[in-house]
Every structure is written in structure tokens, then in C-alpha cells.
Amino acid sequence: MRLVLQEFLSLDGVSQGPGSPDEDPSDGFTRGGWFVPHLDESFDRVATAWLGRADAFLFGRRTYENFARDWPTMTDHPNARVLNGSPKYVASQSLTTARWEPTTILSGDIPARVAELKERPGRELQIHGSARLGQSLLAAGLVDELRLAVAPVVVGSGRRLFPDGGAPAGLRLLSHETTPSGIAVHVYESTGRPEYGTYGA
């Protein structure tokens, strides 16, 4: 399977708490919900098409617990069948049980476990949110594709997908589009280490 990292970002790179004020208040973050005002039907179609390519999902603990709380009750949502019925994996050193079936808990050497999952047949193993997990797997060279939905807002604080000191990564743009509400959707393929050069006239 291809490992695909899907993230909502602000213009200043914040990935924390896009969906609601109380989604992720860790480290005193109080500006959650910044992505929601920019949702529109065009982006809903994009997100639904992405979900349709998934054969399994991979989450960090915090994102998993939020999804496991909300999605089993959202049976009328058009994406509920895919999310609720597909195999799910949660990377955690602390969870011992997972109530959102079918779920498998991954512990120990997470990059090694994810590398094993990628060897299984299938289309896409998708990471939704879970920025810390995404950062570690990007640094390990395991992410095949990044899908970034960038909202036209500067949040000003919060955890970023690409923090200072993060692992460098080379990318190739595969596609881009902008929704009527201003969400810029960029799809990149990982190309390994970035290239460097010197500008000359």
C-alpha cells in the first residue's frame, strides 16, 4: 500500500485543532476550529474522493480517540461507511484497547510496523491529521504522498506540521486546485532528500 499523509494547514503552517475549538487544546492552544469557516461543497467532493482510495487508515492516539468518539455516531454522513468499516491502525505506546472496530494497535518500533503494513496488498494507507505521527514517518522516508489542504487564514500559534528542526524532504507537485472558499489543495509525491543549488544570473 502507498502511505498517504493528509493534513489541514493554515497559511502559517499550523495543523493543530482545525475542526473545532476543543479538538486539541494541548499546550494551551485556544484557536481551534480555524479550518471550518472555509469548508465548501467543492472541498467536500475532494475529501470524499480521497477517502474512496483508502483501503486502511493510520492514526496517532489523539486523532484516533477523537475519530473513535465521533464517527460511529455519524452514520448519516456520506463518508461514515468507509471510515467505520475499513481497517484502522493506531500508533500508541499507551493504548491497550481500541473500541472503534476494526482497529489494530501498533506499538514498539512504529516506523518498522508501518513499513510492514506498506508491504501488504492494497491501494492507500491514509493518515488523517496525526501530525506528530506524520512528521516521524516523513522523517523515516515512509510517506509516499502528501495531500495538503491550506486554508486562507493565519492562526498565529499552534503546533505546525513542519516545525523548525524537522527532517528535510524533497517533494514533486502532482496536482493543485483551489476551492471557491479559498482552500488551496496541493498534492505532492515524496522524492527523498531535497536538492540544493546556487542561483546564478
Task: Itemize the secondary structure elements and their pairings.
Blueprint lengths: L1 E8 L31 H11 L2 E7 H10 L9 H6 L2 E4 L11 E4 L3 H9 L5 E5 L2 H9 L5 E6 L19 E9 L5 E9 L9
Parallel strand pairs: 1-5, 1-6, 2-3, 2-5, 3-4
Antiparallel strand pairs: 6-8, 7-8
Summarize this, please?
With 201 residues, the chain is of the alpha/beta class. 22% of the residues lie in helices and 26% in strands.
Can you tell me about this structure?
- With 201 residues, the protein is of the alpha/beta class.
- The chain is built from five helices and eight strands; from the N terminus they run E-H-E-H-H-E-E-H-E-H-E-E-E.
- It has a single domain, classed as 3-Layer(aba) Sandwich (Dihydrofolate Reductase, subunit A).
- It has helices spanning 41-51, 61-70, 80-85, 110-118, 131-139; strands at residues 2-9, 54-60, 88-91, 103-106, 124-128, 145-150, 170-178, 184-192.
- It has an eight-stranded mixed beta sheet.
- It is globular.
